[in-house]
Design goal:
Number of strands: 10
CATH class of the largest domain: Alpha Beta
Number of domains: 3
Distance between the termini: 54 Å
Helix content: 55-70%
Shape: elongated
CATH superfamily of the largest domain: Histidine kinase-like ATPase, C-terminal domain
CATH architecture of the largest domain: 2-Layer Sandwich
Strand order of the largest sheet: 5-7-8-10-9
């Protein structure tokens, strides 16, 4: 809730700032328009003075005529001898009467450039209105399409982290957050499913341990009983002693069987490695790998080479195949010398082989058969972080896709090859 308030407050401040700036711009434009109008109003006075001066300068010239086209506000200039005396004072326009060197002149003028000014003012108002409507619409659109949706989901990851997995996100067709919301809800469902399975697994393990503890008590008690009898020398007959030893061995075998069950359960059930097998093209996997690792390896100075390949249809789970190749590449980055990584391809008996090779191999040959075992980490790990499960997971996943994986090294190059069946 606090995050929602912070987001909304920040957005309100942003909107307020934008609107204030917008109104400052509108006020500046209005001020300019009125200033221009004031200047146009003053212009006719200036031009009347210019006409007077021009008439004074040429008053002694017979037939002198003033060209009013050179003035913006002057409409006409008439002398008293050119028009009727009555018409001298009758005009639909603004005019002034001036006496110049004993002659009366009527100077018709327009007060301002009203048409031009009105057109400019109208255009300015239209532009300002469009600007205001556009900005308001844009701000409202951002709030409705982005901010409001973000307010809804801002604390959702926190709820997921706290384990609140029961409340689903409402369906939202937002074009910007639709896939994100769908992904978040899918993550919630997956987490909820994982938690449910973990609880069921924990319950099964508890039941299994309780049952195992009860079952192991009998052979352990028998072994203790036989051991005590032998220690006290209760059995004198060699055949009886031999028979007791056999029974101790049988009870030990029974305990060993239980222990083997524990090991088997621990090895198979701690990971959920489901695959959805289908037909897919090799290019859909390789291009995804190229897209991600080209820039990543370039940034750390490792040269990546992906050999040219013919596109073929394969059988398996493309998402899991990408996961397998990513695991192999991450190992190549972690344990190689950082010089180069190569991806090459081969065909063999209805299968496509994808080989990832890296320079700087430091693992011993005797360790290679063990690198696909769970929790196994080679002698070359040094201080590098890891769980020893990467290649084990790759092997398990490929096994469910009907594929294989193997490793080899030669001449300082370590290679891991993935085998996928072709359609």
């Amino acid at each position: 809730m606090n995050e929602e308030i912070k987001i909304k407050s920040s957005y309100i401040r942003l909107c307020t700032t934008v609107l204030i700036l917008l109104f400052i711009i509108v006020a500046a434009v209005e001020l300019y328009a009125h200033k221009r109008n004031d200047e146009s109003v003053k212009l006719y006075r200036i031009e009347i003075n210019r006409v007077e001066n021009e008439l004074k300068a040429h008053s002694d010239e017979a037939g002198f005529y003033i060209d009013v086209t050179q003035y913006e506000t002057i409409l006409s200039v008439h002398g008293l001898d050119e028009i009727d005396q009555y018409d001298m004072f009758a005009s639909n326009d603004h005019y002034v009467i001036r006496e110049i060197n004993g002659r009366l002149f009527r100077i018709d003028y327009k007060v301002d450039l009203s048409e031009e000014h009105k057109a400019f003012l109208k255009m300015t108002h239209v532009i300002m209105l469009i600007m205001i409507v556009t900005v308001v619409f844009f701000l409202a659109f951002i709030y409705l399409s982005i901010i409001r949706t973000f307010e809804t989901i801002s604390d959702y990851p926190y709820k997921l982290a706290k384990g609140n997995l029961t409340v689903p996100l409402k369906e939202n067709r937002n074009r910007y957050f639709g896939n994100f919301l769908w992904g978040l809800d899918m993550l919630r469902e997956n987490l909820e499913d994982e938690r449910r399975k973990n609880l069921e697994l924990q319950k099964e393990k508890n039941v299994f341990i309780m049952s195992l503890s009860h079952d192991m008590k009998t052979p352990i008690s028998a072994i203790k009983l036989y051991a005590t009898a032998l220690k006290k020398g209760l059995y004198k007959d060699p055949d009886k002693i031999a028979d007791t030893a056999v029974k101790i061995g049988e009870n030990a075998d029974e305990i060993e069987k239980y222990v083997s069950g524990i090991i088997s359960a621990s090895g198979d059930d701690f990971l959920d490695l489901r695959v959805n097998n289908s037909d897919f093209y090799l290019s859909s996997v390789i291009e995804e790998i190229r897209k991600y690792y080209t820039d990543k390896l370039e940034n750390i100075g490792t040269h990546l080479t992906i050999e040219d390949y013919s596109d073929v249809m394969l059988v398996g789970d493309p998402e899991r195949v990408i996961e397998v190749i990513q695991n192999i590449l991450e190992n190549a980055i972690k344990y190689g010398d950082g010089d180069r990584i190569d991806i090459s391809f081969n065909d063999e008996e209805g299968a496509r082989l994808i080989t990832v090779s890296n320079s700087g191999s430091t693992i011993s040959d005797k360790e290679i058969p063990h690198i696909f075992e769970s929790f196994y980490r080679g002698s070359n790990i040094k201080n590098r972080q890891g769980s020893g499960l990467g290649l084990y997971i790759c092997k398990k996943l490929l096994g469910q896709m009907g594929g294989e994986i193997f490793a080899e090294q030669a001449d300082g190059t370590f290679s891991v090859t993935v085998v996928l069946n072709r359609r």
